[in-house]
Amino acid sequence: MKIDKNTINKIARLSRIKIEDKESEDYIKDLNSILDWVEQLNEVNTDKVEPLSNISSSILPKREDVSKDVNSSDEILENAPDKLEGFFAVPKVVE
Amino acid sequence: MDNLIKGDKHYWEMVIGLEVHAQVKSNSKLFSSSSTKFGSSPNSQVSLVDAAMPGMLPVINKYCVEQAVKTGIGLNAKINNYSVFDRKNYFYADLPQGYQISQYKYPIVGEGKVTIDFKDGTSKDIRIVRLHLEQDAGKSLHDQNPSKTYVDLNRSGVALMEIVSEPDIRTPEEAGMYISKIRSILMYLDTCDGNMQEGSLRADVNISVRKPGEEYGTRCEIKNLNSIKFIKQAINYEAKRQIEILESGGTIEQNTMLFNTATGKTRPMRNKEEAHDYRYFPDPDLLPLKIPEDDIKLIQSSIPELPDDLKNKFIETFKLSNYDASVLTAEKQTSDYFNDAINSDPDLKNFPKIIVNWITSELFSLLNKNNLDLKNSPVSAKNLGQLVKLITSNEISGKIGKDVLEEMFTSRKSAREIVNEKGLKQVTDQGEIEKVIEKVISENSKMVQEYLGGKDKLLGFFVGQAMKETKGKANPKILNDILKSKLIKKN
Hints:
Chain A is an alpha+beta fold. Chain A has a domain at about 5-45. Chain A contains 3 helices and 3 strands. Chain A has helices at about 5-15, 20-40, 75, and strands at about 60-65, 85, 85-90. Chain A has a two-stranded antiparallel sheet. Chain B has 3 domains: about 5-300, no CATH class; about 305-420, no CATH class; about 430-490, Arc Repressor Mutant, subunit A, CATH 1.10.10.410. Chain B has helices spanning about 60-75, 170-190, 230-245, 295-300, 305-320, 320-330, 330-340, 350-370, 380-390, 400-410, 415-420, 430-445, 445-450, 460-470, 475-490; strands at about 5, 10-25, 60, 80-85, 85-90, 100, 110-115, 125-135, 140, 150, 160-165, 200-210, 220-225, 255-260, 265-270, 280, 290. In chain B, the strands form 4 sheets. In chain B, strands 1, 2, 7, 8, 11, 12, 13, 14 and 15 form a 9-stranded mixed β-sheet that branches. Chains A and B meet through helix 1, strand 1, helix 3 and strand 3 of A and strand 3, helix 1, strand 10 and strand 17 of B.
């Protein structure tokens, strides 16, 4: 797989990161070298190997279904740049 | 062939698949201990995990996992011993993490099926592709302020089961029946409260059209429908829209649509050029979910009687039709009510069909008219049983029975009390009815001549007159028999 300028722009948009045109050449080079390095893994035959989603062999810890009833609104909204009557207020999302 | 809809040029078939989102009925959220209570003040049930504060880690709710397994068993589906939680990445104001924890390649439940029953007695299986667990997002309010969107994170992190069907549905009615059946199964299992108004159960609809026998067409997805009525409306509108485009030579663009409940129309969502690319990958904060076979067996043993089992039992025990039995078992409260009514008197066992009719047509229409539910019905199952007993033992006629039921509904008195108080007992005394009929015949001699001359329809007139004389209390069968024999004798 090769990273080109279109891919860089797409990744940037999906990540909501602004990339200047002059920067994209650097990113193309960096990302391609990362991918080339990872490509080496293709030399290993993985035909009969199940994908691994976690290397830990421990068991997923679970909790009981007990709710903690605490009114969180003051604490949760403390850092909000804008709020109104207990709501976060954000720039209008048009849909 | 009646599944087809007619365009200007061709007949078309709809191909429909549903993604049902069912909120797990739990006390706390999927990965945090915040309460799931509906209708609390905004942002009052948000933990640091739900708000995605840095460093917070999700811990899975054991109960939610069990409810998903239970639901899978109720959908006749394969339970996967191994499943994985993935991150589905997208930016939205009500998604503080920037991703939703969901399941992608390895869902907790695999293929299953549900059966829907038609009025004509036939049934159809709708295949289920999968059920997976995921987090709900927060709620955005767009219409409160011209330049702001308000966000409430109370719902953020609540456990949802997404149930995905194969595109086996062919009509809006089937879609409605399918979601009703899913709702019924969830409510019997008690894994979801089924409340569509509060959004505990909502659906995304995938729909395309094709000429019969051809390949599937390009589909559009209509997002977030929260009533059966809207699902049907949206499907009808969207199918028509697609057919118009195709018949005028256009092509369908794969799109995500929104349904406007006020206008009944669908329209594409904006920012469609950023075709969704969710970049799923396994959530590194969560280990794979392993469910031992023994745990599944334990859950299996806790499964209550499901609507289809109960339906078959009703068909077998009471010889009810497939359709009657499915109406009766669609909601647990209805089947409970029927059971209570039929068991209230030993003689009623012989009249199951009559009891069904009194519940599903007479009582239901009264409840509907008064915006009530069977749970808060003013007429108890026992009292309805008593009413049916009065009718089947010929103490009152069915017609009077309807008036009595209405009276029971408003006064909350028992059927027998009302019948005694108002003297509604049916007249079955032959002699008394004969007297009335003789009076009617002698007062209408001209009509009698016409009747005897061949105007058979006039029989209804005589019945009506005689009924009027007895204030509706004459036993209709005896009345009819005597009337016919008298009119022939005159000849």
